[in-house]
From TrEMBL:
It catalyses: ATP + protein L-histidine = ADP + protein N-phospho-L-histidine. Its EC number is 2.7.13.3. Keywords: ATP-binding, Cell membrane, Kinase, Membrane, Nucleotide-binding, Phosphate transport, Phosphoprotein, Transferase, Transmembrane, Transmembrane helix, Transport, Two-component regulatory system. Residues 188-405 form the Histidine kinase domain. CDD domains: HisKA, PAS. It is an enzyme of class 2 (transferase). The gene is phoR. NCBIfam families: phoR_proteo, PRK11006.1. Member of the two-component regulatory system PhoR/PhoB involved in the phosphate regulon genes expression. PhoR may function as a membrane-associated protein kinase that phosphorylates PhoB in response to environmental signals. The keyword Flavoprotein does not apply. GO terms for biological process: cellular response to phosphate starvation; phosphate ion transport. The keyword Cell cycle does not apply. It comes from Novimethylophilus kurashikiensis. The chain crosses the membrane at residues 6-26. This is Phosphate regulon sensor protein PhoR.
Length: 413
């Protein structure tokens, strides 16, 4: 019995010693976890030596990864800092997380003082606040710098991550000056060409009317000269119209427009252009539906759509005109049974001088500016152009006006 008691005591003593060793190493681990630094990873005995060694390797690998990430982040910030465009990182509540020096210069921001501030507190222009709140960032916003009215900025918000945004700011003052010079040049040249073309056209017409002034064998050449002079005059008039529409000083003069009466005029003009080679008729007309806008501009837009339909519809075809409500929007549409348009051409139709078929455009006398003029006029009236077409079956061009430009007359009026 005495030998058994001694063995039990020895066993308990060994267990206690082992437990004390584990407790000692565990306390070293807990103490290190309170201040986990790689050089201070404790050393242990036995199993704890393997634990601490493994912990050291994991921390060393983590430290290397952290160093690489910090280095990559620093390189990214240096690259973003070197960008000529301003970049501002916004969090989910539109507070500033970071901005580069270009943004500081263009928007008057300071990372030291403005980090964590809502961007709307610092960029206070009404247009920007509306742009920020609308949550539609497909198109950039153009505005003047609040720090210098001579500087024009282009701002665009780009969503990324979890409800975060990039605010990209670009100085477009130089581009706007170039665009202004281009518009002025076109307007001035067109204006200067108008008078000589009118004189040449007048002389050609006068000579043709004087009996015997033009020999019969030369009359064909005079007809060609008169046709080409007419084309040039139409081109000049369209260029002047575009320049006027693009001018920032040309504000929209709004009145209530009797659209049904205007459409009747456009239909008669289209019938005269057709020379009874097509059936041009009003298929649907809401007599109570009027618009707020500029009558002359709407006349030009509607007339261009009808004239295009006539030019690109073979003889004997039909041109249907409709004016009606679609939900809360007002829609003027022109449907033809013409040659149609391939789908890949449709996105570019409103570009100036863009032609699907250049040879046919020359035959029909088009200038390549009609749909560009239509687009500018519709934009000024908060409207959009919708195009549906199928090659060989015809096209439908629709001018869709937003509710804020629509006026509905009572039937008693």
């Amino acid at each position: 019995m005495a030998g058994g008691g001694t063995a039990l005591f020895t066993f308990c003593l060994c267990v206690a010693a082992l437990l004390a060793l584990h407790l000692y190493n565990f306390r070293k681990l807990v103490a290190w976890l309170k201040k986990p630094e790689l050089p201070l990873v404790p050393e242990g005995n036995g199993l704890w030596d393997d634990v601490f060694a493994t912990l050291y390797q994991v921390l060393r690998q983590h430290s290397r990864s952290e160093t690489r990430l910090i280095s990559a982040l620093e390189r990214l910030q240096l690259a973003a800092g070197a960008l000529p465009d301003g970049v501002v990182v916004l969090n989910e509540t539109d507070q500033i997380e970071w901005c580069n020096p270009s943004a500081s210069k263009q928007l008057g921001l300071s990372m030291e003082h403005d980090a964590g501030q809502p961007i709307s507190y610092l960029v206070r222009q009404t247009e920007f606040i509306a742009y920020l709140n609308e949550r539609n960032y497909s198109e950039p916003l153009h505005l003047k710098s609040s720090r210098n009215s001579d500087i024009s900025l282009e701002l665009q918000l780009v969503p990324f991550g979890e409800n975060q945004k990039l605010l990209i700011c670009r100085d477009i003052t130089h581009l706007e000056k170039i665009e202004t010079m281009r518009r002025d040049f076109i307007a001035n040249v067109s204006h200067e060409l108008r008078t000589p073309l009118t004189v040449v056209g007048g002389f050609l017409e006068t000579l043709k009317d004087i009996e015997g002034a033009v020999p019969e064998n030369l009359r064909h050449y005079f007809d060609l000269m008169e046709d080409q002079t007419g084309r040039m005059r139409n081109l000049v008039e369209d260029l002047l119209m575009l320049s006027q529409l693009e001018s920032s000083q040309n504000l929209l003069q709004e009145t209530e427009v009797d659209v049904p009466g205007l459409i009747a005029t456009v239909q008669n003009e289209g019938q005269n252009l057709s020379g009874n080679r097509h059936k041009v008729y009003i298929e649907s007309m809401d007599e109570t539906l009027h618009l707020r806008g500029n009558r002359d501009e709407l006349h030009s837009a509607f007339g261009n759509l009808v004239n295009n339909a006539i030019r690109y519809t073979p003889e004997g075809g039909e041109i249907r005109i409709r004016w009606q409500l679609r939900g809360k929007e007002a829609v003027f549409s022109v449907q033809d049974t013409g040659i149609g348009i391939e789908q890949h051409h449709i996105p570019r139709l409103t570009e100036r001088f863009y032609r699907v078929d250049r040879s046919r455009s020359r035959e029909t006398g088009g200038t390549g500016l009609g749909l560009s003029i239509v687009k500018h006029i519709l934009t000024r009236h908060d409207a959009r152009l919708e195009i549906q077409s199928e090659l060989g079956k015809g096209s439908t061009f629709s001018a869709v006006f937003a509710p804020n430009f629509v006026v509905i007359q009572s039937k008693a009026e």
